[in-house]
Amino acid sequence: MNGTxxxxxxxxxxxxxxxxxxxKVGDGKRAYVKKPWWQRRIEANIKAWRKxxxxxxxxxxxxxxxxxxxxxxxxxxxxxxxxxxxxSTFLKNKIHSGSTKIRWFVEKKxxxxxxxxxxxxxxxxxxxxxxNANGSITECPDAxxxxxxxxxxxxxxxxxxxxxxxxxxxxxxxxxxxxxxxVVVTIELVKAxxxxxxxxxxxxxxxxxxFWFK
Length: 214
Description:
This protein has helices at 3-20, 37-60, 67-77, 79-82, 84-120, 122-129, 143-154, 165-174, 187-195, 210-213. It has 214 residues and is mainly alpha-helical.
């Protein structure tokens, strides 16, 4: 049996076991990841704040709004006492604060995912950074063009300013810092890296799945 046959047999066995145990067998569709409750709450608040901000801006322009809208804005933000300009500024700050909190969360989440991909699957990371997460490279780059491209960067002799002011600053700052030892790849490091791999991810250039390395 080749690797494809073994994989098909293992999957079929897993389906049979799941059915015998009364478990639900997946339909092959990726489950929708629900946003955290606090993010959904803030997004709902931002939507409401933007609606109210639009109403306040209409009042600032002299547009007559309904009594119900006016009373609700006055109850929430003291529109009569504070004035439309103060309420408008307050709502803008609320919207900016909520949007910033969500943006920070999303950026940190993306950074954690990219760090994990860089450690375990650099090819997938570079595909996502290049906007080709689901695609594949079917055409090999031309060897002569690649050599010419990199020669323009690495093979050109140049003289740098060794007495630049910033270099002296760096020398003073790094004074006393010891040189890092050479990285030695031990069998323990290799085993630790393999343990973090998923068993049945799509095989890479070597054509084998991580299960067999384990």
